[in-house]
């Protein structure tokens, strides 16, 4: 199944019944898939007049108690930032997909990881956090999409799925399982007309700084809980690795190929692949820092996740960086060459 | 003696933050009267704006969802699509509706979203301190048009209601004024009809209300109401611009 | 005989905008000498001429006026 279709199908099977989006390459297959499937399952598909409108439609649907999502690509995600900040502030669950393309500006439509900062630091305003998942395989994309709706409901938060055109276009065999049983607490915050109950308000305006501070700390406690409960990562041949590559998404697929090559030449190389970019799997990296001699961060950008790696490593092990921004997708041999270079240079 | 007029139940019994003589408070009251009279409390949801009416939820005793500046019609669309049997309305100022939210508004109207917008035109940005609005009158002084609005610099008052009336998705489009008790009663009738149009599933309904902002017009409430009638109604003629029920009769 | 009316003003809500005075055909309302909690001179009944037409209540932004007739 193709990545974008897997994503759409997982959303439908996760009970998503509202999709709002605005076309942008390279993710148009998502709204196209949803426009077909929503009709079949009696859900809502609506092409908004912009990304801003679409995310606000998602907000309205989420406040109605529906599982709602939107998808876009980098320039469109920039436009959604206001809405993301509001979703976070109002504690409304929603799933936002970013099929990252080359940038800044219009950039190009090739696979890129240039939106890491925007995704993990909150491109929107204010003191908020949002879980960000970066799947690397179609099955994982399917599983994570399903899970994202549960995470969104459990923590009452927007959740982002960050992929790129490669992830969207790749075709892999997958197992289309149904939604796992996750108990979602009753949605006692939704607005559906105050029939036989006191009226409700969904708002983020808190004019009193002391009250606002309280709200910020309350959100922070939730973010701390997510930081504790949500980190996910994959480790590949890290046990005896002297050089550990850290890469996510498409870059991690490439890096895995490079690790296999290096291993076949006898080099003790491993890969750590963050699956959640926020919360970042710091603990896992800190543990590896006790074993490995060198971290090599590979990103399809000029270097963004490297900051988080350095924060986790705390200077205990050197961290090198290799990046290919702009939509360039290197082949595993290229990364293997970089590995060899460091291997010799650092006398590992 | 029997009571012929009393405060509506849905209007919480609290003082509001609006300035003396502000039109927002009158419109709030009219809406609440209708929610009571039409028995809508259990199925109505309001999306107020960023603007002086941002705190509407402090006064409306029914469900209210905040919106980012200008996004009301998109949020309302999300609500209505998710809950087609509820009555959804946005409450928006001129900046919210006709500047930052123009796209959301026009497209919701054009899609024929079965929602209602109450559009409070006071020709200024009230909340932020009286800056120029898209609806500011030619020659009108505001804090960002200190020499008066000049068409060669700031363009013309935007008549978004007239624009919306041209859209097939809009079923009922009307402009009213708060200038005197008779016109306030007309405004209430118009809002009532707008809700009825929504309930009938006929399409988008819009009530623009010409409303005073004494504070930023820098006049007394009395003078503000006079200005409404003498000046604003000249630039913005009141009346029904579109009514799908009238069309059906023909 | 003309209808007889009576208004009750919730003075705590009044902001002395004078709109009720402006529209009352019978000059039945005036601003009081005293101040309310917010520091306004709230409206009060001026004389017994009220007809219960409710124009003041329709106008009042604060929904502070209740009108009886009979
Ligand atoms: C994105 C954004 N830009 C600007 C503002 C600041 N702001 C709040 S209300 C407002 C204008 C209000 O004017 P109007 O919509 O006419 O409402 P009024 O207060 O006059 O009723 C502005 C500019 C904001 N809240 N958000
Ligand atoms: S500033 Fe103007 S619109 Fe805002 S509350 Fe005061 S009078 Fe009303
Ligand atoms: S009810 Fe009519 S007559 Fe009586 S005080 Fe009000 S406006 Fe005047
Ligand atoms: S209209 Fe209402 S607020 Fe204004 S003076 Fe009369 S009673 Fe007071
Ligand atoms: Mg305004």
UniProtKB/TrEMBL annotation, chain A:
One of its GO terms (molecular function) is 3-methyl-2-oxobutanoate dehydrogenase (ferredoxin) activity. The lineage of its organism: unclassified sequences, metagenomes, ecological metagenomes. Pfam families: PFOR_II, POR_N. Signal peptide: none annotated. Gene3D superfamilies: 3.40.50.920, 3.40.50.970. The keyword Oxidoreductase applies. Residues 241-335 form the Pyruvate:ferredoxin oxidoreductase core domain. Residues 9-180 form the Pyruvate flavodoxin/ferredoxin oxidoreductase pyrimidine binding domain. This is Ketoisovalerate oxidoreductase subunit VorB. Its EC number is 1.2.7.7. Keywords: Oxidoreductase. It comes from anaerobic digester metagenome.
TrEMBL record, chain B:
GO terms for biological process: cellular respiration. It holds the Pfam family TPP_enzyme_C. The keyword Nucleotide-binding does not apply. This is 2-oxoglutarate oxidoreductase subunit KorB. Residues 66-209 form the Thiamine pyrophosphate enzyme TPP-binding domain. Keywords: Oxidoreductase. SUPFAM superfamilies: Thiamin diphosphate-binding fold (THDP-binding). PANTHER family: 2-OXOGLUTARATE OXIDOREDUCTASE SUBUNIT KORB-RELATED, SUBUNIT OF PYRUVATE:FLAVODOXIN OXIDOREDUCTASE. InterPro entries: 2-oxoacid:Fd_oxidoreductase, THDP-binding, TPP_enzyme_TPP-bd. Its EC number is 1.2.7.3. The gene is korB. The keyword Oxidoreductase applies. GO terms for molecular function: 2-oxoglutarate synthase activity; thiamine pyrophosphate binding.
TrEMBL record, chain C:
It is an enzyme of class 1 (oxidoreductase). InterPro entries: 4Fe4S_Fe-S-bd (IPR017896), 4Fe4S_Fe_S_CS (IPR017900). One of its GO terms (molecular function) is 2-oxoglutarate synthase activity. Pfam families: Fer4_7 (PF12838). Residues 5-34, 41-70 form the 4Fe-4S ferredoxin-type domain. Gene3D superfamilies: 3.30.70.20. Keywords: Oxidoreductase. The keyword Transmembrane helix does not apply. This is 2-oxoglutarate oxidoreductase OorD ferrodoxin subunit. It comes from anaerobic digester metagenome. The lineage of its organism: unclassified sequences, metagenomes, ecological metagenomes. The gene is OorD.
């Amino acid at each position: 199944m193709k990545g974008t279709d897997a994503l759409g199908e997982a959303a439908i099977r996760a009970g998503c019944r509202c999709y709002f989006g605005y076309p942008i390459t390279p993710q148009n297959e998502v709204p196209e898939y949803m426009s077909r499937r929503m009709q079949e399952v009696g859900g809502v598909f609506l092409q908004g007049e912009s990304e801003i409108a679409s995310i606000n439609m998602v907000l309205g649907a989420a406040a109605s108690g529906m599982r709602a999502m939107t998808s876009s690509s980098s320039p469109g995600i920039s436009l959604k930032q206001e809405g993301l900040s509001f979703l976070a502030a109002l504690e409304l669950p929603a799933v936002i997909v970013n099929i990252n393309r080359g940038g800044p500006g219009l950039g190009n439509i090739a696979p890129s990881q240039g939106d890491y900062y925007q995704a993990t630091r909150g491109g929107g305003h204010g003191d908020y956090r949002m879980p960000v998942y970066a799947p690397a395989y179609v099955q994982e994309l399917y599983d994570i999409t399903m899970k994202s709706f549960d995470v969104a409901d459990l923590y009452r938060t927007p959740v982002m799925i960050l992929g790129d055109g490669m992830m969207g276009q790749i075709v892999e065999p997958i197992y289309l399982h149904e939604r796992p049983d996750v108990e979602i607490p009753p949605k006692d915050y939704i607005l559906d007309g105050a029939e036989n109950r006191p009226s409700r308000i969904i708002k983020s305006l808190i004019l009193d700084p002391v009250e606002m501070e309280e709200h910020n700390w309350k959100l922070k406690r939730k973010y701390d809980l997510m930081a504790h409960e949500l980190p996910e990562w994959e480790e590949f041949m890290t046990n005896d690795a002297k050089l550990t590559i850290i890469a996510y998404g498409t870059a991690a697929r490439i890096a895995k190929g490079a690790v296999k090559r290096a291993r076949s030449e006898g080099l003790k190389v491993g890969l750590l692949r963050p699956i959640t970019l926020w919360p970042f799997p710091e603990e896992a990296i800190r543990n590896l820092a006790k074993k490995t001699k060198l971290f090599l961060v590979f990103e399809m950008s000029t270097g963004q996740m490297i900051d988080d790696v350095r924060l986790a490593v705390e200077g205990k092990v050197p961290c090198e960086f290799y990046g290919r921004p702009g939509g360039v997708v290197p082949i595993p041999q290229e990364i293997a060459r970089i590995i060899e270079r460091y291997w010799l240079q650092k006398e590992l | 003696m029997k009571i012929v007029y009393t405060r509506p139940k849905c209007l919480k019994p609290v003082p509001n933050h609006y300035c003396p003589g502000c039109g927002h408070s009158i419109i709030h009251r009219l809406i609440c009267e209708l929610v009571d009279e039409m028995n809508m409390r259990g199925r109505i949801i309001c999306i107020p704006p960023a603007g002086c009416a941002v705190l509407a939820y402090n006064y409306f005793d029914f469900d209210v969802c905040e919106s980012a500046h200008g996004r009301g019609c998109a949020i309302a669309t999300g609500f209505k699509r998710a809950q087609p049997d509820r009555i959804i309305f946005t409450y928006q100022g001129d900046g919210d509706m006709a500047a930052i939210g123009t796209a959301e508004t026009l497209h919701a109207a054009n899609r024929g979203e079965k929602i209602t917008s109450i559009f409070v035109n006071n020709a200024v940005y009230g909340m932020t301190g009286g800056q120029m609005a898209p609806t500011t009158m030619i020659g009108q002084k505001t804090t960002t048009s200190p020499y008066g609005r000049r068409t060669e610099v700031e363009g013309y008052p935007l008549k978004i209601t007239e624009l919306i009336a041209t859209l097939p998705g809009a079923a009922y489009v009307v402009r009213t004024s708060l200038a005197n008790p008779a016109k306030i009663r007309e405004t209430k009738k118009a809002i009532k009809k707008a809700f009825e149009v929504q309930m009938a599933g006929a399409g988008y309904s819009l009530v623009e209300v010409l409303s005073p902002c004494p504070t930023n017009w820098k006049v007394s409430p009395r003078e503000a109401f006079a200005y409404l009638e003498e000046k604003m109604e000249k630039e913005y003629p009141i009346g029904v611009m579109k009514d799908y029920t009238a069309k059906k009769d023909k | 005989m003309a209808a007889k009316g009576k208004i009750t003003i919730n003075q705590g809500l009044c902001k002395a905008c004078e709109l009720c005075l402006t529209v009352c055909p019978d000059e039945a309302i005036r601003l009081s000498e005293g101040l309310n909690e917010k520091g306004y001179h709230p409206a009060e009944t001026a004389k017994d001429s009220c007809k219960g037409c409710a124009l003041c209540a329709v106008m009042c932004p604060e929904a502070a006026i209740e009108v009886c007739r009979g």
